[in-house]
Amino acid sequence: MSHLENLVLKIWRQNGPGDAGRFQSYRIDRISDEASFLEMLDVLNEKLIGEGLEAITFDHDCREGICGTCSLMIDGRAHGPQKGTATCQLHMRMFKSGDTIVVEPWRATAFPIIKDLMVDRSAFDRIIESGGFITASTGGAPEANLTPVPKPVADAAMDAAECIGCGACVAACPNGAANLFAAAKVSHLNLLPQGQAERWSRVQAMVESMDDYFGSCTNHGECEAACPKEISIDFIALMHSDYLKAKIKDRKLISQQ
Ligand code: FES
């Protein structure tokens, strides 16, 4: 284990949604290269509190790449320099002594800043509320082999279900579009047999809810590059395909034949 010295952190500080905000520089030393990026921020916060200053507000929960709450733009890249890695799993060995690291919140109209590095991502909740579920009577779990699922379909559904809803796709997109998030959430249900009953109403509701809050996709592909779970933009094509089918006149009649 070695330590990083003389790190300069340029961190976005903003008192609340109405505040203009500004960058503030902090110097920090003796950071273990085994520390995670969030642990490094913890050390900085302890130092600030010890000096009687206000700690930096940032989101986190599981710190193991599952919950999707960590959300930092590090040196202009969502979740920082390591591909396929959430901020909480980024380690300080990716940096070196003397580095200046710029840390910002997600920048997107649909994600207003609450304070410092924390943003409000409840626009994602509106998309999920509109159709990101299946409606089924509860009861005992059925025998799994009663509903066979082809292996490639199960694999694709699980790939989509890896989305942790962090919002990196939106932050990385020049249009602030949420197509990768919505596509992952639509696809993991629309691919599986259990999701078929609401397939067409789900995709319409979720795409239209997405359009209420987020920008439009123009195929930049930045979302796929920024995604900590490396979710493929192929799911966006699948979502668009399902949306078009759902919009076919008399779709309901066709599906009942
Ligand atoms: S803190 Fe849960 S994914 Fe990073």
Short précis:
By secondary structure, this protein is α+β, with helices and mostly antiparallel strands. The protein has helices spanning 37-50, 122-131, 151-161, 168-172, 179-190, 199-213, 222-226, 234-246, 251-256; strands at 3-4, 7-13, 22-28, 31-32, 73-74, 77-78, 100-104, 113-115, 118-119. The longest helix is centred in the last third of the chain and has 15 residues, at 199-213.
Supply the key terms:
9 helices; Ubiquitin-like (UB roll); five-stranded mixed beta sheet; 9 strands; Fumarate Reductase Iron-sulfur Protein, Chain B, domain 2; 12% strand; binds FE2/S2 (inorganic) cluster; single chain; alpha+beta; 257 residues
Account of the protein in words:
With 257 residues, the chain is α+β, with helices and mostly antiparallel strands. It has two domains: 3-115, Ubiquitin-like (UB roll), CATH 3.10.20; 122-137 and 144-256, Fumarate Reductase Iron-sulfur Protein, Chain B, domain 2 (Orthogonal Bundle). The chain is 35% helix and 12% strand. It contains nine helices and nine strands. It has helices spanning 37-50, 122-131, 151-161, 168-172, 179-190, 199-213, 222-226, 234-246, 251-256, and strands at residues 3-4, 7-13, 22-28, 31-32, 73-74, 77-78, 100-104, 113-115, 118-119. The chain has a five-stranded mixed β-sheet. Strands 1-4 form a two-stranded antiparallel sheet. Strands 8-9 form a two-stranded antiparallel ribbon. Strand 5 (73-74) and strand 6 form a beta hairpin. Helix 2 packs antiparallel against helix 6 and helix 5 crosses helix 8. It binds FE2/S2 (inorganic) cluster (FES). FE2/S2 (inorganic) cluster is lined by residues 60-63, 65-70, 86-88, 164.
